[in-house]
Amino acid sequence: MTARMRFDRHLWKEVTHLLTDLPVALIGFVYVMLTMSLGVGLSVTVVGLPLLAAGLAGARWLGRAERARARALLGIRVDEPSPLPRRRGAGFFPWLWTALKDPVAWRCVLYEFIRLPWGVLTFAVTLVSLIVLWPVLPFIARGLSNVDRAMVRALLSPSDELERRIAELESDRGVVVDTAAADLRRIERDLHDGAQARLVALAMGLGLAKEKLLEDPEAAAAMVDEAHGEVKLALAELRDLARGIHPAVLTDRGLDAALSTVASRCTVPVTVTVDLPERPAEAIEGIAYFTVSELLQNVSKHSRARTAVVDVWRAGDRVLIQVSDDGCGGARLDVGSGMAGLAERLGAVDGLFALESPAGGPTTVTAELPWRRREVSRLARQGG
User: Fold this and answer.
1) In the predicted model, what is the mean pLDDT of residues 198-210?
2) What is the pLDDT of residues 142-181, one digit of tens each?
3) Whole-number percent of the chain with pLDDT over 70
4) Model confidence at 280, in pLDDT bands (50, 70, 90)?
5) ∠ CA 275-280-286 to the nearest 5 degrees?
6) Judging by beta carbons within 10 Å of its beta carbon (0-12, 13-18, 19+), is residue 194 exposed, middle or buried?
7) Following DSSP, what letter does each residue of 75-130 receive, concatenated?
8) Is residue 376 helix, strand or coil?
9) pLDDT for res 30
10) Mean pLDDT of the chain
11) How far apart (Å, rounded) are the C-alpha atoms in residues 286 and 275?
12) What is d(CA 310, CA 355) in angstroms, rounded to the nearest whole number?
């Protein structure tokens, strides 16, 4: 490709960026020098650190403007960094400390310091190339622009993996907290409406039986029999509630036996296959159990299926769960639905959730969880 063929709109965008480097860099350099020198110089006073924090916040805005200019003229895509976390009611000093240790703002400050000498160089070289060295202008502009691109990516790009991970963990923490609160409310409601109500009725019945014990022994015996029945029902409800929190069969015999028990309570025949070389960590095992349990409940309630299949296996460092049925399909991941809740819970532990459910069926749900080895307890190690 000849030099003449390179005189296109992309070249003139690069030339425009290079020529505007100097005035833009001059504005940024003056700003950071003024705010940083005042903030550091007055740091022994009350206003110094707040002024420095405000200057860093302004440097963030300069970085945003530079990223926009690079996107428009250099054609590079630079994502915006995450905003500073704001905690409602946290107070002034937590905000001040967060602003002072903001790595994004400090990288913007460094960028503005470096830009001034580089801006002088690019302005001079580009201007001379336009007047004298215009036959090789495309090559010079491309070389200088590539340095500009490298500087923007190095200093103005967010630390992608770290910031993305922080955002994910903050979101996941909220999901975990909300899920735990919902579970506690469910347990409290089940205890209040079920076992507690039965135990109150049992206490009242036994009190009445005690009063009639001498006057009418036969009626008292009938009340005791009725109370005995209430005790059995209360025990059954407490057993079901305990199974819903963490089933004993899962602790004692593992995922295969626990899922087989869940499948036996499903309204359709379920084939369960668990192919794991060893038992995973208790948390992963519990999440896998409750995921399959809730999916099979959906099969019982909504699918109108004739059969269902549950497969659990390990692939590398992941535990894969697949639940499929031959029902009517049409399941969706709408916000607020049970499927969406499952997806959020799995995402909170670095899991994945995929739903394929066309109208008319079949439905296939695939879930992934990270594989974590079960740790042997300290007492077991000592006993071994």
Assistant:
1) 71
2) 889 899 998 888 888 776 555 555 555 555 455 555 555 5
3) 73
4) confident
5) 100
6) middle
7) ----PPPPPPP--TT--HHHHHHHHHT-HHHHHHHHHHHHHHHHHHHHHHHHHHHH
8) coil
9) 93
10) 77
11) 16
12) 14
Mention every residue, 6+ apart, whose C-beta is less than 8 A from residue 104.
60, 63, 81, 158
Fill in the amino acid letter for 53: A
Neighbours of 175 (CB within 10 A): 17
Q: What percent of the chain has pLDDT over 90?
A: 6
CB burial class (10 A; 0-12, 13-18, 19+) of residue 268?
middle
- Distance separating alpha carbons of residues 317 and 373, to the nearest angstrom: 10
- Which one, of 237, 307, 255, 14, lies nearest residue 146 by Cα? 14
Pairing of strands 270-275, 363-370: unpaired
Buried b (16+ CB within 10 A) or exposed e, 139-161: ebbeebbeebbebbeebbbbeee
For 305, residues 6+ apart whose C-beta sits below 8 A from its C-beta are: 268, 299, 325, 326, 327, 328, 361, 363
Confidence of residue 74 (pLDDT cuts 50, 70, 90): confident
Q: Give the tokens for residue 371.
A: 């594989």
